[in-house]
Amino acid sequence: MVPASLLPPGDLGRPALRSVRDWMVDVALMLLAVLMGLLVFSGAYSGAVHHVSDAQAALDLGLGAVAVGALWWRRRFPIQIAVGLACFSAVSSSASVAGLIALFTVAVHRRTSVAVAVAVWSIGPGALFLLWRPQKDRLWVELVLSLSCSGIMLAWGTSVRARRQLVWSLRQRAERAEAEQQLRAEQARTAERTRIAREMHDVLAHRISLVALHAGALEVRPDLPVEQVRESAALLAYHGAPGAGGAAWNHRGAAR
Questions:
Q1: CA pair distance 44, 134, nearest whole angstrom
Q2: Assign residue 47 a region: left if phi > 0, alpha if psi is -120 to 50, beta otherwise?
Q3: Which of 94, 141, 233, 236 could form a disulfide with 41 if both were Cys (CB 3.0 to 4.6 A apart)?
Q4: Which domain holds residue 219?
C-alpha cells in the first residue's frame, strides 16, 4: 500500500508497475475529476454571460472526457499530459479539474522549477476560456480563483515530493547501515576464525616440540632402563593425541 515510486524497481529497463495504492488513487482521482468537472461545467454554463450553444456544450464535455481518460497516463507522461490538458481548458471548463490533477502530478514527479513553468503555462489557456466564454463574475475574481487553485495544487504536490525524497533518504541510510553492520559481523567472524586457527597452530607447534624433545632424549640416552623407555614412549603417544588426557600428559612431560 505504498506508491510504486517508493518501491524498489524490479527491472531497471522498465518503469515501475502500479501498486495497489496507485490503482486506488488513480481510480479515485478520475472519479473526482468527473464529478468536480461536471460541477465546474454546470457553474460555467449557468454563469455564462452569453448563450452557450449545444455544440459548445458537447465540445466542452467531450474534451472533459478525454482529459479524464488522459489522467491514466499522468505518471508516465506528467509534463505532456499537464500541458495538453491546460490547452483543453481554453475551451473546456469540465477539463479544468483534470488539468489541476495533472499539475499536481508534475509537482510530485518533477523538479519544482518544471512544475512552476507548467503552472505559469496553464494561466494562459485559463484566461482564454474567460475571454471565449465570459462569466457573470468579474474577470479578476475568476483569475484569482484560478491562480489560487493552481497554487494550492503546486504547493501540495511539492510537499508530497519533499516527503517522498525524505523517505528515500531514510531508506538509503537504513540500507547503508544494514550493509555496514553485515560487513562488521563478517569481519568479526573472520577475525575469530583467524584467532582460532592461530591458537590451533600454537598448540600443534607446542606438541610437536614436546614430541621432538622426548624423541631426542631417547636418541641421546639409549641406555635408559626399560621402564623409562616405556614411560617416554607413552608420553610420546599422549603428546600426539588430542583431548584433555593428552594435554595433561603434555604438562607432566614439560614439568619433567
A1: 9
A2: alpha
A3: 94
A4: 193-255
Mean pLDDT of the chain: 78
In this predicted model, which residue has the larger pLDDT, 220 or 140?
140
| pTM of the model as a whole | 0.64
Q: Which of 178, 205, 222 is the last residue of a domain?
A: 178
Angle, nearest 10°, between helix axes 139-220 and 226-239?
A: 170
At 255 the pLDDT is: 39
Of 149, 178, 207, the residue at which a domain comes to its end is 178
pLDDT digits 0-9 by tens, 166-224: 888 888 888 888 888 998 999 899 989 988 988 888 888 877 777 777 666 666 666 66
Count of alpha carbons within 13 angstroms of residue 116, beta-carbon side: 3
**Number of folded domains that form the chain:** 2
Question: Is 72 a member of any domain?
Answer: yes
| CA gap 91, 89 in Å, rounded | 5
Provide the residue type at 17 as one letter.
Answer: L
Contacts of 136 (CB under 8 A, 6+ apart): 47, 48, 49
Residue showing cell 547503508: 176
Task: Write the DSSP assignment of 122-166 as a string of letters.
Answer: HHHHHHHHHHHS-BSS-HHHHHHHHHHHHHHHHHHHHHHHHHHHH
Residue 29 has a CB neighbour count (10 Å cut-off) of: 20
Record the cell numbers describing residue 237, joined without a space: 603417544
- Going by C-alpha positions, the residue among 113, 99, 78 that lies closest to residue 36 is 99
pLDDT score for 241: 58
